[in-house]
Amino acid sequence: MQIHQLRYFCAVARTGSFTRAAQQEHLAQPSLSQQVRKLEDELGTKLFDRLGRSVRVTQFGEAFLPRAEAILRQVSDAKLQIQELAGEERGKLVIGAIPTIAPYFLPAYLASFARKFPRVQVSVVEELTHDLLDRIQHGTVDLALLALPVPAANCLCQELFRERLYLVVPENHRLASQREAHLKQIENDPFLLLKEGHCFRENTLSACGRARVQPNVVFESGQFTTIIAMVAAGTGVSVVPEMAIEKRDHCRFIPLADENAFRRIGIVQLKQHFRSLVHRAFLKHLQELQMKAQRRAITSDGTRGKRIAAVFPDQAA
Asked: Lower CB count within 10 Å: N or C terminus of the chain?
């Protein structure tokens, strides 16, 4: 049994196709198929049912898959440990982030990390929560920035910060001049919401539920930018996290005063995954810069600082 055979088997299981697995592994499809058949011969059972152009994992393949993935993780971890013993500050790091975090939060952090560790290759995967959790389980993503909580019993979830929610309204809206607002005040307004699958949609609906508000949803989108543009055009109102606030004509952003009107952002990683030097360095870098950002916010704006202190009693000191 060869390591590359296990890797090919896992690739076919993940993609559901020998063709896509071969493309992913940069290998000719007949060669990949031959190696998988050799693995099946050695195990004495079929791992896949071949169904024309697609494949389905058999019950034996389902049982074998987590063991194969564990072996591949152990081999990868062993390589990383050897690199660390050699004192190398190099390697690869794959970071996952949901679309409501990635474009707003990651760019500045990744740029400063790249300057500090120029020999580290960082890749970013932007997907919805369920897909990123699946990638963490399969070892193709090292860590992910997600909205907490997440349904992952075998993952470590560390809260990084909490972020206040804002109501966004057209500039001529009756609430546009208010310093704070409550969700109850927009109960009958046309409401713009993120599409199904986005965890911030659930954050918004949960906040509305606690406020006993049934939002009058008239438009759904997969992007905050689209929603904010629609609000600016006078289509309705919406709720966005603080990091999505942007300078835009014809709309206003108002802090929500409702209890628990915030979302928790955290780092999610597999419990058994080896934390390489690069992995640990990125976590430390992320936490240090986030703490500095929070301190700057507190000292530069007394009003905003009080709000952060109220939401982050353990971090604002």
From this structure: C
User: How many percent of the chain have pLDDT more than 90?
Assistant: 53
Asked whether residue 180 falls in the same domain as residue 307, the answer is no
CA distance 213 to 124: 36
* Per-residue confidence band for 24, with pLDDT thresholds at 50, 70 and 90: confident
C-alpha to C-alpha distance for 115 and 93, rounded to whole angstroms? 15
Question: How many C-beta atoms lie closer than 10 Å to residue 116's C-beta?
Answer: 12
Amino acid making up residue 224: F
Nearest Cα residue to 237 out of 129, 165, 310: 165
Tell me which range, 14-23, 59-68, 110-119, 212-221, is most confidently predicted by mean pLDDT.
Answer: 212-221
Q: Give tens-digit pLDDT for 80-130.
A: 666 655 555 567 889 999 999 999 999 989 999 998 888 888 999 999 999
| Stated pTM of the model | 0.68
Shared domain for 292 and 209, answered yes or no, is no
Q: Are residues 180 and 256 in the same domain?
A: yes
176 and 237 housed in the same domain: yes
CATH classification of the domain holding 170: 3.40.190.10
Give the Å distances, CA to CA, from 297 to 145, 259, 305.
Answer: 21, 21, 6
